[in-house]
Amino acid sequence: MSTAANVRPAHEEVVEDATGARIASASELGVFATLRRGVQMSPQILDGIWVTLLLAVAAALGRVVVPIAVQQTLDTGILPEDGPDTGRVALLVGVAAAVLVVAGLCSAFVNVRLFRSTEAGLAALRVRAFRHVHDLSVLTQNTERRGALVSRVTSDVDTISLFVQWGGIMLLVSILQIGVATVLMSVYSWQLTLVVWACFIPLFLVLRPAQRRVNVAYTAVRARVGAMLGAISESVVGAETIRAYGAAGRTGRRIDAAVESTRSAMVRAQKLVALVFSSGVLVANLVLSVVVVVGTMLGIGGGLSTGELVAFLFLVQLFTGPVQMATEILNELQNAVAGWRRVLAVVETPVQVADPGPGGVRTPRGPAHVRLEGVRFAYPGGPEVLHGVDLDFPEQTSVAVVGQTGSGKTTIAKLVTRLMDPTAGRVLLDGTDLREISGTNLRERVVLVPQEGFLFDGTLAENIAYGTRGTALGGGDRAESADGATTVTPGSALDDRIVEAVAELGLTDWVADLPDGLRTDVGQRGEGLSAGERQLVAIARAYLAEADLLVLDEATSAVDPATEVRIARALDSLTAGRSTITIAHRLSTAEAADLVVVVDQGEVVEVGPHVELARAGGVYAAMHASWVAQTR
Amino acid sequence: MPVPGSTHDRAHHRTRNGTTPAATSNDSSATREGRTRPGGHGLTGSRLRRSAQLIGRGLRAEWRIYVLAIGSSALFGGVTVLMSQAIGQVTDSVVVPALAGDAEARSRIWVAGLVLAGIAVTLALTVAARRVFAGYGFANLQARHRTAVTHQYLRLPMSWHRAHPTGQLLSNANSDVEAATGVFNPLPFALGVVVMIVVAAVMLFRVDVWLACAALVVIPVAIVVNVVFQRYMSPAITRAQQLRAEVSDVAHESFEAALLVKSLGTEDREERRFAARADELRAANVRVGVVRAFFDPVIELLPSLGTLLVLGVGVVRIASGDVATGDVVTAAYLLTVMAVPVRAFGWVLGELPRGLVGYERISRVLDAGGILEPGTVHVPAGGAGAHVRVEGVGVDVRAGGRTITLLDGVDLDLAPGSTVAVVGPTGAGKTTLVSLLARLSDPTRGRVLLDGVDIRTVRPADLTSRVALVAQSTFIFEDSVRSNVTLADDGEAGAPSDEAVWAALRLAKVDEVVAHLPGGLDAPLGERGANLSGGQRQRLAIARALVRSPQLLVLDDATSAVDPRVEQQILAGLRSGTERGVAQPTVVMVAYRMSSVALADVVVHVESGRVVDVGTHDELLARDAGYRALATAYAQEADRRAAAAEDEIDEPHGIVEDDRATEEVAE
Lengths: 632, 667
Prior knowledge:
Number of helices of chain B: 26
CATH topology of the domain at 33-348 in chain A: ABC transporter transmembrane region fold
Shape of chain B: elongated
Strand order of the largest sheet of chain A: 6-7-8-3-9-10
Number of strands of chain B: 12
Radius of gyration of chain A: 35 Å
Largest sheet of chain A: 6 strands, mixed
Distance between the termini of chain B: 95 Å
Number of helices of chain A: 22
Oligomer: heterodimer
CATH topology of the domain at 10-59 and 166-363 in chain B: ABC transporter transmembrane region fold
CATH class of the domain at 33-348 in chain A: Mainly Alpha
Shape of chain A: elongated
Largest sheet of chain B: 6 strands, mixed
Distance between the termini of chain A: 49 Å
Helix content of chain A: 55-70%
CATH architecture of the domain at 33-348 in chain A: Up-down Bundle
Radius of gyration of chain B: 36 Å
CATH superfamily of the domain at 10-59 and 166-363 in chain B: ABC transporter type 1, transmembrane domain
Number of strands of chain A: 10
CATH architecture of the domain at 10-59 and 166-363 in chain B: Up-down Bundle
Largest interface: A-B, 232 and 223 residues
């Protein structure tokens, strides 16, 4: 049944060079590629874009019409030789006001439409990047601080929103306005129009390299904000350590340095932006003086009347306004691209322990049989820690893996649960290579309880229920509402099941002693509980998940002996029909296991039942003798 | 007449409109704890008053820079007016006569061009100066807020931290700061160009009072519009900032739980949880956007409508013969001058609601109480192990509206240099008890004395140099091994020498591990200490405590992931301190392994928050039944199992039939 065997000659092949993917600080894509990719990721941004664009053009035209109407009112209504024409003024003012209101409404609707589409697109981008972080391998996740990762789905995305909500469309409108103004100016004087364009050419030439620098500056700002959040997050998560060692001063200085580096990056970016923008202002105003001089020359030559020159000066404003606007938007674009690149860098990070997805093999539920064949493993950039391990974890068996610190025990646990893939060899579940099994199926069947069980801020019951599956409770009674929050209604079937599980694990007394029993709030990261208590929650949680194979990695290391013994006994009774693999220092676990595996320096040195190994006089016998001496 | 620069920095000032990054803030518990105290950082009074406070405090904090920024802006306003006047002048006195054939005027055209060019350069310089100074001011204010907030995080007690999600705190330091300072982006421009309003208004009144009134009617209308705007905007923006914090919170918590999520395969659930918050944030941002979408065009409309009104009123005034036609033209032109500052104020007003919300969210952190009052008594370090007395100590916490007692009536007297084991079932209050010894929190009742001095009165620096606590879960900083042990910067005065670090690592039995890391003491460690095993991390944390040569060493089950044999060696090493000429510290350890407990001079048995018994291991075994059950749990279990095995000796269940596994033992 193993298709894997055909594809991979087991033992020898080195599957992947475990250099370990890192999350890049920013994607390497160019500006246009970034925009294209960004819009691909958030197609909602383009929803109804044509209507929006049309409305934007109408709003912009309205803005042009009004100054012209004012000019007209003055010329034909107020200034005529024969005195002001009240009726005409009333008419013109009325029309202009109406146009103004319509244009205002258009621009309001443009704003609303843009907010709707871009917020939808950016929400999708956030979620996509968030999900990708979870899909990355554990080793890749560990290459970036959590605080900095958070910035990728929060402030980096926020940076994009400003440009897409406003800049993108205004850039198009500005270009359109520049075109319209050019045509209008040409009607009065094509020579002056050429002069105006000629004045702007140096600006356009300078703009490209300048924008590249702005881009670099903004990218630096984004990266430093990420680093700053990483430093702040460290100071908050490590609060207890910092207090216990009086390290607040130093931690404060580290944060200050990160804050200062963000500040100086912002100032640098702002200086460049100021330079670019004021260059635009300079050219726009210089153009006026050039037009006055050249226009007068042309006029003297007879090519232009005074009225035409004054009108032209007015039109030049319609031209330079959007040009200045465009330089500003281009700056904003660089900022958005900087944010986008940081988010895209996450999405582009290769998933090294990839879920084969829906095409993956679905192994049937039931007793799990795990086999390691010629498994080798090295952490990225490190020496090999497992040197060709062959192991068999028979179904319905409890196996204890023991060995010194650093012997490779935990690595075996991570490979069996496919938190990592071996650098060579393969791990089989019921004969199928783990790499070919669908992620959902694998997690249903194999569950790891790590040494430091993480608790969510919430109640004890919610934490225990986290990870329950519909199958376990019948009738799809999941501990989850539609929005992904875990909720446990007192008295529900789920609640009963939790109470039952707690009782089966012999933890009823402990729960009863807590301030609010199962409704006790565990606090941030479960810090309201002690490390041992957090482990109890993690065990109860795994117990409820009803996996076929439970892998416990030092899962009871901080629990008192009496409780540990109770739990071991409970897990023993539950393993009827299931398998457990326990990584442990405390050899009481090994005594109770059906089979003991002894690992030493990356190799399996002994396998057998406790009674046999204890008598065999080998590595295990020595370990066990010392354990007995220490504990009794 | 054309007015240059009517589009000045629209984009710049629109920065961070309501929906962009703002910050976050705290949940309701923050509100509860962080109630604004009189004299605190919170803004007080009416909205107008609070707005003025927000702006005033910022300007005062960076007043030098803002004088320059606003000055440049005022200069810009003046030069803009000058430019319009100059163009008018040039047209009237040079262009028109020149075209009419005036030779003298023709010769002046170059001069006119140079004057205009000079004004253009000045204008551009004022813009550049304003933008640069405004940029400095903005960045400096953000840095100030961030420094204040993060230093407060370092001061606030653990109880506060447990109630406030990390993600929210990140949001406070990031998007709330951005929100609180957003208004300072357009501010220098708006304040500077007030000059333009003043100039224009004065000139308007000199032209005609009625025309002036028609023109200035824009201002009260703008105020009314703004009041309406604020009413809709404030709740919308408050909600958006709150959700921004929640999104950050879910992301942080979920990323921290990454290993759990993977091992339980709950990626889909986490995605739904995050997507739900992200979608709420989207809706809130759209709501903010809709309000803003209408406010912005209305503010932009006002000056244009004002111009039309002036034309309407003007034609009536001309008809009645009160004003000349030229006056109306001048008034209309002056209004286009006024449009710039009116719009600029629109940007400031548009940012204000978000600024107030962000600032208040920051203030809640800055005003949060519960900081342990630092002591002032100087206690010189050094000397032998500390004498620890715990007198009538009790600890209560509030949970779900009730008061829960975690510890009660604890009295202990620990002799200098003794080794004390604290033993009890999981959840008995051991951690709470030992954390009082390092003053991670203060007891509700009673006191802890260190060599006869109440530790609440001891200077924090003295306390941390005398007492070191190694917690259950180890935290590794993203830094070198050396800095993780010394918790000091390289070369910092008073930092332990490399020899001292190696000695501590040796005592903690982790020196060989470090020696094998590439770079040794300089080897970088990841945030989660990913390149070390759990046991190695714990030993590094112990070295971190030992390098300080504390007089009181508190080990809160700090060796749970360490090999029992190694643990023995570490504890033995601590006790042999005297042989090395080092004074033996008093050691208080929470322990489970009887081998460790047996090393202790005294055992304290804790159950349900009370000390049940104190004595030697043997004494307690003899007289304390609860202790006996705990101490002999493994032995009893082994006996039970042995008995059970006898019963079913004929039917060994679950022993491997597959002989493959046994074969491999060979290798």
